[in-house]
Every structure is written in C-alpha cells, then in structure tokens.
Amino acid sequence: MAKHSRLNPAPFNLSNMKCSRRSYFKAIASAKKAHWSEFLSRATPHSVWTAKRFMFGCPPQRFLNLLGANNHPDVAETLLTHIFPLRAPLPPLLSLTRYEDYTPLTSEEVSRALASSLNISAPGPDQIPYSVL
C-alpha cells in the first residue's frame, strides 16, 4: 500500500496509506498488550523476576568477558597487562672512560667562563648557558 501511494501521490492514496499504517501499528500494540496481560496473569513467584527484567531490561555487565580470566585477580591482571604492557628492558648505561691526557678544570677557569657568558641566553637543565658549553 505504501509503495502504491508513493508511486501515485494522490490525496486519497496518501490518506489511505496513513490510515492503514496507523491501524497496522495499533494492531501490533494491542497484540503486545494482550501478550503481556496474558504473561502477567500466568505469573508465578519465580517468574516475577523475569517480568521485572522484561520491564526494566538487564543491567549492564560490570566486567568485560575476558578470555582466560575466571576470577577477580585474573581479570585485574589481564586488564593491567592490557593497559600497562611490560616494556623491554633499557640498554645498560654507558660509562665514560677517563682520558690519560685529561687535566681537570680549576674553579677559576669555570668562574671566568661563567662571567664571560650572557645572562640572557637560555640555560640548559644544569642551569649553565649554552654559550659556555
């Protein structure tokens, strides 16, 4: 009926389509109401909870269904390894070797180098300006 009224959009066809659509949905609603009334009339104390679940729906699952996780510690371990995966160990730190011909700096050399540097240059993490380095 709806296809026919779309192909031939005469006012009579449109009103006829709306009336048939309204009566169709009304019949579905009355069938649902009759089924629900009949279900409640046969309800036992054990099926009251089923009726409540039909009315309000099932509560959402609190935990995801994780494979291989059957209890709370397994679920916690699975979530932790998924959210915070283990990283590969860092390579060992390199140690600096002393040079044989190295002479240590004196405090006067350091103070002269710092005095000659500008105060407006951006300092590095050790608070020594880049021009000194």
Structural overview:
The protein is built from 5 helices and no strands. With 133 residues, it is mainly α.
Topology summary:
Layout: H1 2-7, H2 11-41, H3 48-56, H4 72-83, H5 107-116
Provide a concise account of the structure shown:
By secondary structure, the chain is mainly α.
Largest sheet: none
Low-confidence stretches: none
> How many helices in DSSP terms?
5
Any idea what the radius of gyration is? 40 Å
The portion of residues assigned to helices is 40-55%
Total count of strands: 0
Mean pLDDT score: 76
Q: What does the overall shape look like?
A: elongated
Order of helices and strands: HHHHH
Distance between the termini: 87 Å
Strand content: under 5%
By secondary-structure content and strand pairing, the structural class works out as: mainly alpha
